[in-house]
Amino acid sequence: MTDRVKYLLDETRLPTTWYNLAADLPVPCPPPLHPGTLQPLGPDDLAPLFPMALIQQEVSTDREIEIPGPVRDVYRQWRPTPLFRARRLEQALQTPARIYYKYEGVSPAGSHKPNTSVAQAYYNREAGIRKIATETGAGQWGSSLAFAGALFGIEVQVFMVRVSYDQKPYRRALMETYGATCVPSPSPLTQYGRAVLARDPECKGSLGMAISEAVEVAASHPDTNYALGSVLNHVLLHQTIIGMEAIDQFETADDYPDVIVGATGGGSNFAGITFPFIGAKLRGGPDVRIVAVEPAACPSLTRGRYAYDFGDTGHMTPLTKMHTLGSTFMPPGFHAGGLRYHGMAPMVSHLRQLGLIEARALMQKACFEAGVQFARAEGILPAPEANHAVRGAIDEAIRCREEGVSRAILFNLCGHGHFDMQAYTDYFADKLTDQTYDESELAMALAGLPSVGS
Predict the structure, then answer these.
(1) Is 272 part of any domain?
(2) How many domains does the chain have?
(3) Who's near 358: CB < 8 A, 6+ residues apart?
(4) Pathway, according to UniProt (predicted)?
(5) Cα atoms found within 13 Å of the Cα of residue 146, Cβ hemisphere only
(6) What pTM value is reported for the model?
(7) Burial class (CB within 10 angstroms; exposed 0-12, middle 13-18, buried 19+) of 107
C-alpha cells in the first residue's frame, strides 16, 4: 500500500540476540580505568556492583549476544514495537522527505528503558541479588527498573535528581506503584548526600550526584547491587533490539533510512536505534547519516572534552574515556531531565571521534515547539527528551524541502510525555525559558578533569 502508516512485526519476529557494535568497530574503544591504579579494569573490580553476566557483556566483542528466554518472555508484552510513517507530519511540513519513527512509548513504563531494566533485573536475580540501588533523572529509568524489579522479586531504591523529583511527581508515583522506594537526591541517606546538603541545602541535584549516592549504597551493602540506565556498554547493547527490529520493518516498507536522528543524554536510546544501522554500514551495507541531538544546556558531545573522567560527581566510579563537561558540572534544571548528564556514553563518544556520527545542540523551546507540532499531526505527545529527536527530524525534513530532495528520515520516539504535562503547561504559558550554563563553571569543571594520559 502506498499510503501505509504503520509497520508491525509479529512477536515471533522478536530478535533472539542483541547486537554488539564492538565487534565491528574499526578501532576498539579505550578501556575503562581503575581510579586508584589507572590500569584497565578487570572483572573483579566491577563485581561489587554488577552480576558477572553483565560484566562479561560489558567487555564482550561478540557480535551477537543471546537474549535469555525469560527476558524475551517479558519483552513480548510490548515488543516488537511499531514503526510509523509520519505521513500527516510530512504533509504539515510540505516536505518530500519520508519520515519514520520507532515508537518505544508502548512499553509498560512508557519508554525504551525497560529494554535494559528487564535484562538487568533478570541477571541480578539469577545471581541471587534481591536489592538494587539506582539513580534516575526524569524518572523514565527509575520507573522502568521499578517495573522490572516487581517482575523478578527485587527491591529497588531510586535516587531521583531533586529538580525532577519536584517537577515530575507522577513519575515518582509510578515508581512507588511498582513497589520501589524513591528519594530526592542529594539526600540525607548517604554520606555523600549529607556532605552535598551541608554545603548547599537547596541543591537541585544532578545525575552525577544521584549516581554517587546509588553507588555508595551498593558498595556499602553486600546484599545490594547497582544498576545504570544508560552510558555503559551492556546497557547500550540491550537497547539495540530497537534498531534490529527497525531494520526488519524497513524491509517490509521497501525503504532504508538516509538519515537517523536520535536524542542523546547518556546515549542509550540513541545507541538503540543507530548501532545496528552503523554496524551494517561498517560491514559494507548502505551508507546512512547519523545525527545525535543534545540539549544546548548540557552539550557533552558538542562542547565537552574527549577525556577520561568519572561517571559520578562523588568520584566513586571507574574512569571512562568519553565526551564530558566535567564530573562536577551542574546543568540547569531544564525539563528534559533524562538528558541532564555531564558525560556521553564511551561507545557513542568513540563514534564521534571516529567521524561516524554528527552532533547538534538545540535549545529547549525549539524542541517543545517541535513536540507540539508532532503531537498535533501524529497524535502522540513526546517526552521532553524525545522532543530533541523530533526537532532534529523536522529540521532534516525542512532541509529536504528546501533542497527539493526526498530522503528517508528515521528517529526514535523514545517515550511519551503523559507524565510531563507541567512542562507543556509551562510552554503554553510562555514560562519555559531557553536555559544555558555558566561558561566559567564549565571551564572550572573541565579544569578539574583527572590527569590521565591519552
Answers:
(1) yes
(2) 1
(3) 289, 290, 291, 292
(4) Amino-acid biosynthesis; L-tryptophan biosynthesis; L-tryptophan from chorismate: step 5/5
(5) 26
(6) 0.95
(7) buried
